Predict the 3D structure of the following.
Amino acid sequence: MCGIFGYVGTRDAAPLLIGGLKALEYRGYDSAGLYVVGAGCIKAVGQVKNLEAKVGDTMKGHVGLAHTRWATHGVPSEINSHPHSDCTGKVWLAHNGIIENYSELKDELIAKGHQFKSATDTEVAAHLIEENLKTMPVFADALLAMLKMVRGTYGFVIASDQDPEKLYIARKGSPIVLGIGEGENFVASDPSAIVPYTKKVIYLNDGEWAEITSSSYKLFDLDGHEIAREPQVIAWDVEQTQKGGYDHYMLKEIMEGDNVIKNTLAGRLDEEALSIKLPELADVEDRLKDIKRIIITSCGTALYAGWVGEYLIEEYAKVPVECEYASEFRYRSPIVEPGTMIMTITQSGETADTLAALREAKRQGAMIVSIVNTVGSTIARESDAVIYNQIGPEIGVASTKAFMSQVTLLTAFAIKLAELKGVVTAEANKDIVREILALPEKIKTILEAREDIKAVAQKYASYDDFLFMGRKYTFPIAFEGALKLKEISYVHAEGYGAGEMKHGPIAMIDEKFPTVALCLNDSVYEKMISNVQEIKARSGRVLALATVGDETMKKMADEVIYVPAIMEMLEPVLCVVPLQLFAYYIGTGRGYDVDKPRNLAKSVTVE
Ligand code: AGP
């Protein structure tokens, strides 16, 4: 997705703008550009370093804005890169989102004599401000009028020769964060670009805009009313957004696994009483006691975490749960009866389909409880209750630590809900809480064996097709393991329920089509043994995940990766770790940049 960065202060803006764009590169983009008030605009296709090469030492000025573009309207090209300006070259802006009525606005503006340079929707906004300035001499009025004329979503950062010491920002559906510095202020579409300079931030809500100078900021709503809002302090430090000595963010984030569980449960697990508390649910506890059904709706990896949640909550809290792809839920005509709780799960808190599904469910009167990693994100702010992951930024495009944290929180939620509904006593909960306390150490043993997993991955590095199969609590993990492999190594990998083998997939199996089989010592172990035998009988190679000490699997499978024994309900968060590492080593073995896989973005904020 696109990245926005802006600066207003006393330092040279250009190098700071380049630095800001580099911090946002992981979001995925195809071109970049920047504008410095009084020094002009430069653009470049490809990586930010191509733009940096054009800066030179001529671009002097201390107010500017910059953008990395992910094409939605108009092909990737310099002319279509942001920032865009009006006819006079006095108004410059960068934009995230989609202006849905840009075509009719553009026709009207052309009829009034405006000359357009690009094929983008964004450029319309600059010309609208220019047109408005003809009758509204105050820049802020002309800007506000534009915000009311466009339909769709936007995150804007805007500069003008008329107000050379100011930046203007506005948001509707696309995140914009203001960073409050000392004698300087920053703007970004993602706080990780601001953290190196300041941790004091203000998140704009939809329908808000602001004017910023080096020493002040004023926040307004679309009626022009000023809004008072104190800055939040981000707990993340720069270190957390660096790679911590590993080759890739993805490996760093996998290797954080044991701490991810601890951080996720910090303040939520009483080791003495062996109990779980979720203070974020305090305001909705009464409503939770009465819920009759839960719908979990999310995208990608977050939905696979939801699948684990479905099994956990039904088995443990005895509440009916169904999972839905948000991209389907929002377009079909779902029935959300009274007494239904919607849960969205999202790392970024900005995924367009998940947000739309949330809003549809809210429109039907449902209570929204969300599991979110990004503090202050849109989905967080539109939920009735938010359970934050507390795991710091996830930079790698492939979601790893966020998934582990999401599954951990779903386990905590199932336990809490079971207690609230009187299905399980606090005393009975102690067994599962005791097992949860042992999780970090068990994860650590897997992480410490990563070189063994790397060796196994190298044996499978040349295959172009994989089947991942699991049952019950490892069913979602089969899909998540397949997704990890396909998204960072571009290899065809399918997740499947092992019980489905006979209904088609086994036809694909031969010596060129290996299977990753999740065969832990659990209630479906014997069934999995049969599936592995079926695969072997058809010359299929099998990499098995098995419980430490399982000698049967050692004889039956071609390779085995062992995981520590664990209670069945907690298998998912353990089994996913070797599969994340497996995918990582195959992807890096193929020479790909696993942090920024082709065609993917970290946060899918467009549909
Ligand atoms: C996961 O590896 C993918 N990058 C993707 O499926 C991701 O989980 C999905 O886009 C949802 O993102 P979110 O958690 O930020 O909503």
In short: The first helix runs from residue 13 to 23. The radius of gyration is 26 Å. The CA atoms of residues 128 and 146 lie 6 Å apart.
